[in-house]
Amino acid sequence: MTQAESKVGSLTVFSTLAVRAPFDNGVMAGYEKQDELSFEWSPTTVIESKLAEGLHADIVIATDEAIDRLICKGLIKSGDCFPLVTAYFGVAVPRGQKRPDITSKKKFLDCLSSARSVSYSLGGASGIYLQKIMTEHGVMSDVEPRATKIFQGFTGEKLLTGEADVAVQQMSELMVVDGIDIVGPFPDELQQLTPFTIAVMNGCTDWINAQAFIHYLLNDQCRGIYSKNGLQCR
Fold first, then answer.
1. What is the pLDDT of residue 8?
2. Which of 27, 35, 85, 163 has its CA 20 to 30 A from that of 41?
3. Coil, helix or strand at residue 21
4. How many angstroms separate the CA atoms of 133 and 158, rounded?
5. Are 35 and 52 within one domain?
6. CA distance linking residue 2 with residue 55, whole number of Å
7. Which domain of life is it from (predicted)?
8. Domain of 160: which CATH number?
9. pTM: predicted TM-score of the whole model, two decimal places
10. β pairing state of 166-170 and 118-121
11. Is residue 217 part of a domain?
């Protein structure tokens, strides 16, 4: 179990998978009260579904769009939201496999069309955006029938099992999976940045510790770790 795995604690954190790599690779190691936190890692759409079902969270880390929807539903106050990081989409292949050229829109789309199977997440921002790209550029019918689709988790794991030979996800999420090679980010003309915000839920059971944790996540040490793990600081 890694230091950012779920633990029984006083604060429940529903967090996007996009920040899993930095949390496991140093962020949580420097937090004195990590034993008082319990993490549930999910795509943003799953986080929203859990909250809609009435499941309790004290802190949420999700896309800005999702946070705005939670504010509109009265679950969060705008003054309790703090910009955290920005993620960008990337591509990975099995370790040792020839890395495809994805430096232009055409080459990227050719990579998808020629792949044996592309792994993407149906519940994550990366998969939702990838489907939009494929539909707009006419390759959906080539890629989708043989794609390896997951509802949550890390698409790179499907490279390890051999189910897919190309994986698409946030760069920071691809970096979580050992044993794969990250080809690089989407070409500039297709790249879309995804901003993430951390927020305290209105029903938080321990505001003092929640605010202390958020303050810690915004310090310079943590910002350096985010940068090393495929994220841009905000």
1. 44
2. 163
3. helix
4. 21
5. yes
6. 24
7. Bacteria
8. 3.40.190.10
9. 0.86
10. parallel
11. yes
| Both structure tokens of 36 | 């008082």
Can you give the pLDDT at residue 64?
A: 97
Question: What digits encode the pLDDT tens for the residues 125-155?
Answer: 999 999 999 999 999 999 999 999 999 899 9
CA–CA dist 12, 210 (Å, integer): 10
Amino acid occupying residue 68? D
User: Among all chains, which residue has been given the structure tokens 């839920």?
Assistant: 201
pLDDT in the model for residue 2: 42
Same-domain status, 80 and 95: no
DSSP 22-66: HIIIIIGGG-TTGGGEEEEE--HHHHHHHHHTT---SEEEEEHHH
Task: Decide if 20 contacts 41 (C-beta within 8 A).
Answer: yes
Task: Count CB-CB contacts under 10 A for residue 127.
Answer: 24
**Domain membership flag for residue 155:** yes
Closest CA to 95 of 149, 156, 36: 156
pLDDT at 9 (0 to 100): 52
> Is the separation of the CB atoms in 107 and 187 below 8 Å?
yes
| Enclosing domain of residue 60 | 11-87+194-233
96 with 180, same domain?
A: yes
Helix (H, G, I), strand (E, B) or coil at 67: helix
Q: Does any domain span residue 171? A: yes
Structure token digits, residue 161: 């099992």
3-state secondary structure of 113: helix
